[in-house]
Amino acid sequence: MNLKGKTILITGGGSGIGLEAAKQFLELGAKVIITGRSKSKLDAARIAYPTLIAIQSDAGNEEDAYALFDKVKELGGIDILYNNAGVGVPPKNLGIANDDHLKGAKYEIDVNYLGIIRLNNIFMEMLKSREESAIINTTSILSIVPSLIEPTYSASKTALAFYTKSLREHLRIIGANVKVFELLPPLVDTDMVADRDDKKISPEKLIKGLINGMEKDHYTIRIGDTRLIYIFNRLFPKLAFGLINRKKINAGLKR
């Protein structure tokens, strides 16, 4: 896929992975629109990269989603929808069967899964109308093997992975020209996980891998340790589960 000249909408683009993606897409000659809940982060992003277009919008909010579509349409539309925004609410002390976990679980599902389906549906006809267009859904290494202290986050990403595969096949069958990419990151070095001492990769490396995969039309893009966990889970599932959860179990019990 040729990214030069494309207009790309990145949700959660005010910082971290989303902002790094905006930077690298701009360097390739794309036009980039970012969204996020924090006005201060969006303002800072525009100062750093003046050609960015920033729209304040909550990825999990239905009203915001439709308002975002209207604003993007006024700007001329998009070629690529990059569903980057995501949230994680780990339960305390490995607790799952309690009200705190249920509240966090609803939030994770709304943003990480249902919100993405909503945005894809809203923008689908616009994307179909383009000569070459794409959707990027960000799942996770935890869509392959679940984390015991992030059960619903893992479940939301697994649901998104199955949905992404189904959406890709559906669009192929009906002859739509919308490519559907799945990005599977390992743990990425962002503010969200700054307090964790697990192995991490940089946002820069992740996005370079994403762009390389898109340019080669690799629809499933596994980065870093995600490749190894994918293979281990197929051959040695207990080993894969242990590799994902060894440190998480110890960390969770200390909370």
Automatic annotation (TrEMBL):
SUPFAM superfamilies: NAD(P)-binding Rossmann-fold domains. The keyword Oxidoreductase applies. Keywords: Oxidoreductase. The keyword Manganese does not apply. One of its GO terms (molecular function) is oxidoreductase activity. Pfam families: adh_short. It comes from the Bacteria. Gene3D superfamilies: NAD(P)-binding Rossmann-like Domain. Belongs to the short-chain dehydrogenases/reductases (SDR) family. This is SDR family NAD(P)-dependent oxidoreductase.
